[in-house]
Amino acid sequence: MPPSQRKIPVPRTTVPSGSGGESTLEKVVSSPVFKDAVRTAAREIVRGMFRTGRR
Fold first, then answer.
1. Which residues of the chain have pLDDT under 50?
2. For residue 31, which of 42, 22, 41 has the smallest C-alpha distance?
3. What residues contact 28, with CB distance under 8 A and at least 6 apart?
4. What is d(CA 22, CA 3) in angstroms, rounded to the nearest whole number?
5. What confidence score (pLDDT) does residue 22 get?
6. DSSP letter string over 1-53?
7. Backbone angles phi, psi at 10, to 5 degrees
8. Alpha carbons 34 and 24: distance in angstroms, whole number
9. How far apart are CA 25 and CA 34, in angstroms?
10. pLDDT of residue 33
11. CA separation for the pair 18, 29 (Å, rounded)
């Protein structure tokens, strides 16, 4: 068989599911820094909608 047609076995990588711990996304979303950033973004969006900027 020519080298270009050989099948190379690739090891499968599995992620253990249901480990019971928090996922990275859950950790980020529940962090106080993320909550503060979302609150600030929402405030700036509302200010932009009503055209009231900082003075």
1. none
2. 22
3. 34
4. 45
5. 86
6. --GGGPPPP----------SSPPHHHHHHTSHHHHHHHHHHHHHHHHHHTT--
7. -110, 125
8. 13
9. 11
10. 95
11. 19
Q: Which amino acid is at 29?
A: V
pTM of the model: 0.53
* Predicted local confidence at residue 17, as pLDDT: 61
| Percentage with pLDDT > 70 across the chain | 78
Residue 14 tokens read as 């599995």
Token pair for 4? 């270009």
**Cβ pair 47, 53 in contact under 8 A:** yes
